[in-house]
Amino acid sequence: MDKYFIQLALDRMNIEEAIRLTQKVEENVGWIEIGTSLIKEFGMKSVRSFRNAFPEKMLLADMKIIDNARYECDLAFTAGANVVTVMGCGPLITVQLVAETARNANQNFMIDLLNTTEKQQILLRDTFPDAIFCLHTSKDQQERTGDTFRSNDIGWNGRRIAVAGGLNEETLPPIIVQLRPEIFIIGSSITKATNPVAAIRTYQQIIKDNQF
Amino acid sequence: MDKYFIQLALDRMNIEEAIRLTQKVEENVGWIEIGTSLIKEFGMKSVRSFRNAFPEKMLLADMKIIDNARYECDLAFTAGANVVTVMGCGPLITVQLVAETARNANQNFMIDLLNTTEKQQILLRDTFPDAIFCLHTSKDQQERTGDTFRSNDIGWNGRRIAVAGGLNEETLPPIIVQLRPEIFIIGSSITKATNPVAAIRTYQQIIKDNQF
User: For B183-191, what is the mean pLDDT?
Assistant: First the structure.
């Protein structure tokens, strides 16, 4: 695995469309994200279908867990996910339970930092050294306010970092320099591209050009 | 409709079990909540199945929306829900979009106050006069910390109030006196009772005894 990779985020489509799209770009992306909208529309069938279609691929289930951590982790891991997401703005105990459940299952967990305060971020960073931290500008924030990625950089002390939300040619270079992310989460600008592979290559070039 | 009612929360079971359970108590509860765990496990099929089984009943889909508000609201309302939930600890823009989408659909929205600060609660209270506000101690908080319902009462100025999490004979009376809730959300202590109807009647008696 490269020291960084693209996570393909699949949302607002049905399972068949998502699988067909993924088949076109499978070789060019690191992880596949089964988006929250697929999970809420189709349930764990979405994860199982991806596990069947891509037996060897790392699958992230964007569960956005904010309660009932153990149960929801079990749902996702049993269905074939390798990574689950948990909301950093929710109760700390829920993040703790996701962490424990993921560790016991030898799987990964990503803490979505959407709408977290700097204080929450520091606590999460220091409490969960094995988490992946996702700095995230949400769809609603992007679409309604025109915001793209914003980073209030608390200093991540070598933690694994993912970035999501409005990543483009303009916003990416400073993010790369500042945060050295491992995971670049990209959705509609790949899935809605006329040529998804070309879109991925453009991102990869930008990332490569700004590595150090 | 009474001035208060019980919302039956269904979680950690399959759709058939949930429908069977609901059929036993339908007459004794106000709203039916299709829990987050049913939604994430079975998708919108869970909501559609309940709409078919209970054509006249108010259905709340516990979507716990925290992004992609319009899309997720549309999923739930199209499937037959009358009420959706949105997380108050998420971005305000998402709550705003849920409010708009629910109003346009002539449906209701509930703001889940899990892990919100007093400052966030005051802002939400003053921004969304037509919301239902759910004061909520989560499953993970109850099961792991033994916490039951806690209220930091900001003064709700006549807003519609729901309460959820560890409601029992001991915790209910002061909650009723302090918050005058309209909606009492009760899950496992009904669904796991040997006699669910008797369990509901006990709750109704406690509520009645503490009304003013």
Answer: 96
